[in-house]
């Protein structure tokens, strides 16, 4: 019994030593290595709370320089709790390598991966059974070139140093993304890859919408008085139209505000629903009690009724946003799918009739 207890106590230390030894072989990780050597509590927070293999997204020297340039302070100088939360967001609860990311369904759809980040300021996704990804921690969305091209995100590598090669993109909070160099480094507890910036922690739904430049949508949500409601949801999927055709977003007419509120309700789904597990023909019920049908075509493009996803899986602290090419038509006319004036000619009448 004493031997088992001793082994349990030594295991985190062994993992820490293994990880630091592994990353110290990479010159572009010298700042990260020094950070962990200077503060052992950071290493403990990075490699904890799971018995499964992990993937650490190790920030490069470029990430340290970029953080100081953007914020005016070094990452070492930030609040310790913020630094711990950030590093926990860099700790993925899965083994990811170049082969797994570039093969099978992951190559086409990308991967939504749970992390060690559980602080409720950044992770209010709701109950596990309300999501199609069974992760208690906050998530990141990782894409390689194939998936990124279909869903509106490019992939490039800005790193230099050992084992440089084009990798993947990690999509994190506030609509931000960073390049990932797939070095497939290994240590006793799993693998590590290299990222060229520190991941941005998730923020609330409407602020994230604004951060990806969907000003029409933020105006609409504010005008109908739903900003606090959207941000207080414990798990929400927002279908965010990039354009609003024929809609008066600044109206003060009570009837039109009611119509706009119903229209927005038709663009939210309970629980965070990520595109990586969607099946063609799958349906959801919207916040306006309308049916949303998912179409996944042969090349991996995703549609909600007639609206195509142009950017998928934008992470918020309380769910996820999928950016659409237009307002989703909620009418049941089969010819409406793909017809760019669907909302203007058909759905506007449905809204006015109160049928949403």
TrEMBL record:
Protein name according to UniProt: FAS1 domain-containing protein
Classification via Pfam families: Fasciclin (PF02469)
Signal peptide: 1-16
The species this protein was found in: Glutinoglossum americanum
Source species taxonomy: Eukaryota, Fungi, Dikarya, Ascomycota, Pezizomycotina
PANTHER family for the chain: FI19380P1, PERIOSTIN-RELATED
Entry keyword Signal: yes
Protein keywords: Signal
Domain FAS1: 16-147, 192-328
Alphabetical list of Gene3D superfamilies matching this protein: FAS1 domain
């Amino acid at each position: 019994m004493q031997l088992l207890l001793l082994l349990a106590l030594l295991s985190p230390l062994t993992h820490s030593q293994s990880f630091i030894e592994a990353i110290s072989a990479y010159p572009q990780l010298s700042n990260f290595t020094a950070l962990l050597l200077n503060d052992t509590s950071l290493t403990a927070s990075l490699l904890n709370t799971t018995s499964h293999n992990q993937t650490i997204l190790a920030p490069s020297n470029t990430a340290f320089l970029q953080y100081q340039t953007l914020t005016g302070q070094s990452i070492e100088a930030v609040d310790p709790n913020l630094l711990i939360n950030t590093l926990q967001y860099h700790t993925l609860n899965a083994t990811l390598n170049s082969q797994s990311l570039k093969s099978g369904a992951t190559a086409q759809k990308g991967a939504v991966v749970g992390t060690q980040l559980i602080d409720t300021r950044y992770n209010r996704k709701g109950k596990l059974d309300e999501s199609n990804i069974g992760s208690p921690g906050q998530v990141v969305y990782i894409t390689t070139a194939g998936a990124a091209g279909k869903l509106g995100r490019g992939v490039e590598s800005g790193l230099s140093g050992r084992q440089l090669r084009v990798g993947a993109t990690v999509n994190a909070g506030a609509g931000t993304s960073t390049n990932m160099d797939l070095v497939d480094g290994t240590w006793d507890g799993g693998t590590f890859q290299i990222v060229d910036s520190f991941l941005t922690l998730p923020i609330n739904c409407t602020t994230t919408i604004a951060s990806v430049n969907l000003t029409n949508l933020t105006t609409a949500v504010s005008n109908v008085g739903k900003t606090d409601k959207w941000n207080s949801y414990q798990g929400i999927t927002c279908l965010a139209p990039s354009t609003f055709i024929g809609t008066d977003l600044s109206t003060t007419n009570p009837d039109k505000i009611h119509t706009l509120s119903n229209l927005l309700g038709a663009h939210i789904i309970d629980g965070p629903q990520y595109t990586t597990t969607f099946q063609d023909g799958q349906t959801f019920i919207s916040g306006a009690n309308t049916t949303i049908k998912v179409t996944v075509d042969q090349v991996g493009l995703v549609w909600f009724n007639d609206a195509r996803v142009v950017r998928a899986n934008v992470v918020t602290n309380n769910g996820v946003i999928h950016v659409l090419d237009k307002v989703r038509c909620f009418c049941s006319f089969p010819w409406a799918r793909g017809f760019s004036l669907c909302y203007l000619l058909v759905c506007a009448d449905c809204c006015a009739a109160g049928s949403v």
